[in-house]
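New to this. Look over this protein:
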Amino acid sequence: MAMVASIARSNAATGITTCSASHQKERNCGRASPAFFRSPPLAAKQTVSPHKVLCSSFAGVEIKIPSRPLSRQTKAVDRVRCQAAAGGEEAAPLEIPKVETPKETELTKTLQLGALFGGWYLFNIYFNIYNKQVLKVFKFPITCTQVQLGVGLVWSLFMWGTGLYPKPNISRDQLIAITPLALVHALGNLFTNLSLGKVAVSFTHTIKAMEPFFSVLLSSIFLGDKPQLPIVLSLLPIVAGVGLASATEASFNWAGFLSAMASNLTFQSRNVLSKKVMVKKEGSLDNINLFSVITIIAFFLLLPLTLATEGVKLTPAYLEAAGLDVKQVLTRALLAGFCFHAYQQVSYMILSKVTPVTHSVGNCVKRVVVIVTSVIFFKTPVSAINAVGTAVALSGVFLYSRVKASMTKKEKLA
């Protein structure tokens, strides 16, 4: 109040009129002010209360100051209005953006995560469908793998070239560490395509449910991680389920079965290599860029094998000579390559947002979705015993994920 009185006395002396906000509508408080105005200095102990409303006509302009401090959680949008005292024209209000509430933030994150999981599953489904359609008529799985890695290479270069994603700066040490990961990445996808070309999609993915078994085995051999009893017990239904499904699989052949097993071995060896040869993710080398770099290196590592064994086969001239629909085969091969790169990139995006356990459970559900959709789409004959074996194997994968999470949590608390 002392401050208000001081300003009122000063204004009276200089020709400035001060009034309260309640009198603003009744009279015009904006008398002409002098050309030069010097405000009196405040006393040392004077403080200005933020709850007072001052209406002063400085140089013919009236400023209304909110009578309460802004709150971070306020729901209403506070407005600051500058109004000419003489003319009474109201300028456009300056709006302070609404602060997002925690509830809205959580909802947005949940929707984004749901969209990522949906994209992950959808791209995976379409990859398996397009890839199987191509492999049925084009019996060159190494070339198909080369094309899929090539599409990933083109997409990565486009992403960096257009500024859609920051280009990583790779050091020599990082390149040396990434190369073994790229090699097993190329081999893992090659063996998967070899299996998909020989047996049904559903059977390949049932065998690939054995990944936790190979993960435990390789970690025990190369990292010295001795599995505890609950982990070992959780692997039993996986092995039993895959064995039961294999014994009753109509499309079973050893080439397809062993190729899927080799895929499990190479992909899980990648996880072991990741721990043995740590890649420093410095600067812009995050999970997305790391996967892109792995894809590019894998493309060039596989290229000599492709040229030596299958040559250049995916050409219009060769496809036409083989009596194939050139446009259909090329389109589906490119779409398979796009979906292949997209689902793996989305998988890395999900992994950056959730825990490894949640990602593992999501991967288990993804395998179920792929198996069911492939059986429906390709009309794969499935016996009751075969279905039970697949269900037992996938249930074992889910059980392993939960047991692994529980053991990890106990180790952290210990």
